[in-house]
């Protein structure tokens, strides 16, 4: 009986180890596919041809299958997002309001963000500098410098995980513009523009999609006004998700800049593992 128990435990351990190895291999394969999808996306966007089949960095999802794996890619021009370092105060506050933050909280977050990125240590009326962070029991203080990455926004006093999760897809530190490129901006970003309505945004998106489909020049967003910035198309964000037949998922998020150099035409500004938004395949 003792030998039987030992043998059963050994078999169970071997099965567990084999399953772990199999899962590790599957995740590694998914990572390789996601990485490859990023490079393909950058090639499709940056290739120097007038071919209308060139991919547009417009936030549209593209999907294909290879060797049983499903690849999902979203390519976005960073100018279609709101830059938390250079956006106007009105646009930044309107961003918070657009995701359901109340007026008082939006004002407090705006001032706290501005206090974080400015060079002085003087708090704004609703902002926060060193003393406020100390009073909140935090072991860090405002950088008093521009944000280096959007994730750093989570450290701003008053920012909650829920608010950050809602605005994260719409913000950047790479566009360096006070407004947004409405030609490629997502619905959420367009709704963040002050004084626009959902009806205006939906009508424009439909018009924009029709222009894409027909190959016609994309119209400007009439309600964008002073918050519209020109297209640059030199800094691109790619989110590539690979799902294996066994349900393993890997997400790669990368931001790259077109340098135009012959030996190194693309320079990566960020390269990180993203959170999965793909539901596992049914077992």
Report strand order across the widest sheet: 1-2-5-6-7
Helix content: 25-40%
CATH class of the largest domain, named: Alpha Beta
- Main beta-sheet strand count, sense and barrel state: 5 strands, antiparallel
Summed up, the helix count is: 7
Residue stretches low in confidence (pLDDT < 50, at least 5 long) are 277-283
List keywords for this structure.
Pantoate--beta-alanine Ligase, Chain: A,domain 2, 283 residues, 17% strand, five-stranded antiparallel sheet, 3 domains, Ribonucleotide Reductase Protein R1, domain 1, 7 helices, single chain, two-stranded parallel sheet, alpha+beta, 37% helix, 7 strands
Give the topology, please:
Blueprint: H1 2-46, E1 58-66, E2 69-77, E3 82-83, H2 89-98, H3 103-117, H4 130-135, H5 161-167, E4 171-172, H6 187-191, H7 198-214, E5 235-243, E6 249-258, E7 266-273
Parallel strand pairs: 3-4
Antiparallel strand pairs: 1-2, 2-5, 5-6, 6-7
Helix pairs in contact: 2-3
Give an overview in words.
By secondary structure, the protein is α+β, with helices and mostly antiparallel strands. The chain has 3 domains: 2-80 and 232-273, Pantoate--beta-alanine Ligase, Chain: A,domain 2 (2-Layer Sandwich), CATH 3.30.1300; 82-163, Ribonucleotide Reductase Protein R1, domain 1, CATH 1.10.40; 177-227, no CATH class. The chain contains 7 helices and 7 strands, in the order αβββααααβααβββ. The strands form 2 sheets. A 5-stranded antiparallel β-sheet has the order 1-2-5-6-7, with helices on one face. It has a two-stranded parallel ribbon with strand order 3-4. α2 (89-98) packs across α3 (103-117). It is globular, with a radius of gyration of 23 Å. It starts with a helix and ends in a 10-residue tail after the last strand. Mean pLDDT is 87; it is low at 277-283.
